Amino acid sequence: MRSTVRVVLSAVSVLAFSCSLSGLVSAADTKLYDKGLAAYNAGDYKAAYNFTMPLASQGNPAAKNLMGMMYELGKGVPQDLARSVSYYREGAKQGDPHAQYNLAVSFDSGTGVPQNYREAVRWFRRAADQGISAAQYDLGVMIERGRGIDKNFQKAANWYQKAAKQGHVQAQNNLAWLYEKGQGVERSLVTAYAWFDVAAAQGFESAQQKRDVIKAELTSGDLGKARAKSAQLKKTVLPAIN
Questions:
Q1: Of the candidates 88, 83, 90, 82, the residue with the CA atom closest to the CA atom of residue 104
Q2: Residue 44: CB partners within 8 Å, gap ≥ 6?
Q3: Distance (Å, rounded) from C-alpha 196 to C-alpha 28?
Q4: Region label for 164, one of left (φ > 0), alpha (ψ between -120 and 50) or beta (otherwise)
Q5: Is 210 a residue whose pLDDT tops 60?
Q6: DSSP assigned state of 68
Q7: Which residues have a Cβ under 8 Å from the Cβ of 55 and sit 6 or more positions away?
Q8: Where are the beta strands (DSSP E) in the chain?
């Protein structure tokens, strides 16, 4: 297997940095939710619960996702994995992409629910279709490995590319591997070098090592092309994460 080791972002990884505000039907709800999220990220879980629970009870999907996180991690409430999944499932069915992603992670890892790769793929795809880069990457991994779905390198490459263009470093690395081996894409050491270099620019050490290995295999002319391609990718990819 030439991909990176499977990296599943935990529920906290997704929501601690950004959350969907889908379903927030009023400015007051948005303000209350923002307070809950800010309290959560500040480590004030009691306040986070007090702000978020009323919204979740009223049916707000983003608030349900945050409550799912709190129950999964035991933040402000006793840890209850089954209840966590219940919140994720409710938010996911209402269309919240982060709840969909977190539900997929739960199925993939068997956290609070029996492990089910097909269900994981189903919910990764829902979140991926809504543009969640972590879901696009994880869906690519599932397809590349044939886990819960037929193995298909071309489809895996397509999902890696979507995530890579959003700045997802593991997706950039995995896409580079596929270009190096010609799996699902036309083999191109020039393009492999470029994507490894983009991932290396974000501090991904193994990508830096692979880039340097490929560098030794390129002619001076191809190396120039690879560096030019990398520079162009960095102009479009890196601003998305800076």
A1: 88
A2: none
A3: 45
A4: alpha
A5: yes
A6: H
A7: 29, 32, 33, 36, 62, 63
A8: none
168 in Cβ contact with 177 (< 8 Å)? no
Domain 10-131, CATH: 1.25.40.10
Domain boundaries in the chain? 10-131, 152-242
What's the predicted TM-score (pTM) here? 0.88
Which residue type occupies 110? G
| 228-240 pLDDT tens trace | 999 999 999 876 5
DSSP string, 139-155: HHHHHHHTSSS---HHH
Q: Long-range contacts of range 210-218, CB-CB < 8 Å, 24 or more positions apart?
A: 210/173, 210/176, 210/177, 210/180, 214/180, 214/189, 217/189, 218/189, 218/190, 218/193
Please determine, for residue 14, whether its predicted confidence score (pLDDT) is greater than 90: no
